[in-house]
Description:
Blueprint: E1 6-10, H1 11-15, E2 26-29, E3 44-45, H2 53-68, H3 73-83, H4 86-96, H5 98-112, E4 117-121, H6 131-141
Parallel strand pairs: 1-4, 2-3, 2-4
Helix pairs in contact: 2-3, 4-5, 4-6
Amino acid sequence: MADGTLADTYVAAIQHDLADLPPGATRVGVVRRPAPWFHAAVDENVPDLGPPADLLEEIRTVEDDLKIQGLCEEGAHNAAWDQVDFGERYRAYLEASPEARAALEALAERLADGESLALVCYENTEKKRCHRTVLRERLEDRD
């Protein structure tokens, strides 16, 4: 069977019918602590693929400080991402966490079996950096 298609989007795009997803793609949330309304936009959520709580807390603290200094929301988010080395730390988490490794492997197997998947989070990556792009790269690199 052919490999499934991998895509990603953000929850507001799904809610407003703006997401360009493969037909029949399973919408997989990758959020550590989803808001109650998040579940209505996805078929399932895999909290182990969300960034670890300490990393989320650290980026939010730095982002809040940068907003106080006058940066816009997107600018503060992206600057905080760099300041806390979010991408590298999230990649390290994916390697070190047995739960994250197992969840990644399970998604990779589903893709290999022909299932199309769309990774879903909160951030619009046209404006803000997001862990799901790192996650997508990891899944694509497993091919």
